[in-house]
Amino acid sequence: xxxxxxxxxxxxxxxVLIGVWQLFAVRxxxxxxxxxxxxxxxxxxLWLSGPxxxxxxxxxxxxxxxxxxxxxALGWAIAAITGVAAGIVVGRSTVISRLxxxxxxxxxxxxxxxxxxxxxxxxxxGSTMRVALIAFGSVWPVLLNTIDGVxxxxxxxxxxxxxxxxxxxxxxxxxxxxxxxPRIFAGLRIALxxxxxxxxxxxxxxxxxxxxxxIFAAENAYxxxxxxxxxVLVGILGCGLNALFVAIEYRALFWYRGARQRERA
Length: 265
Fold this sequence. Notes:
The protein is an all-alpha fold. It contains eleven helices and no strands. It folds into two domains: 33 residues; 231 residues, MetI-like (MetI-like fold, Orthogonal Bundle), CATH 1.10.3720.
């Protein structure tokens, strides 16, 4: 009953917001804020009005949605692998941590969009530039959370593993990574949100496909329902990717939740 009540509260707020927007847009004839009904109709017309044998997907999906999803997946995967690997190395070495910490703090404070001109000069206007920008901008939560998680491993557990003669690889697999995994997953989740944002921003510049390009082109042509349809679709994809990640995290960290529940009991 509690879960049902929570779900009603969460989704009820969204329904109320959409209803207020609809009433305001219809009564005020708001030029820049078309009613949600018009936005939804345009979203369906652009991307979900295809034949049934294509799952109702239009050809525009291959031009707008698929390239964006591929860039998110590649950029996020590169950030995840690089961030976890580098975070383990930095987190386990006090010397390396002290040496690279100023550089890390400077780089993570540099906004990814500010480096778009640099990436354009270095990598051109293709997907490689956009994937690189996504990877650069989303690696920092993974890297810093991994460092923090690795450095927070219980010293007693490490000393016990050494006393039993476990080699470094076994200590990483059975002691360090499991203890750091909750923080690593937190960093990965934040990185996923950043990857979606950077995907849109990167596709605003010199792009010929992707959702960011579709939104920017609609704005330039003053097709406001199309523009809002693209924005809403980005939000829907973001919610879907986040839900998928949460489901994976739920399965991967079941042991952690059990331990926390026992501690509370």
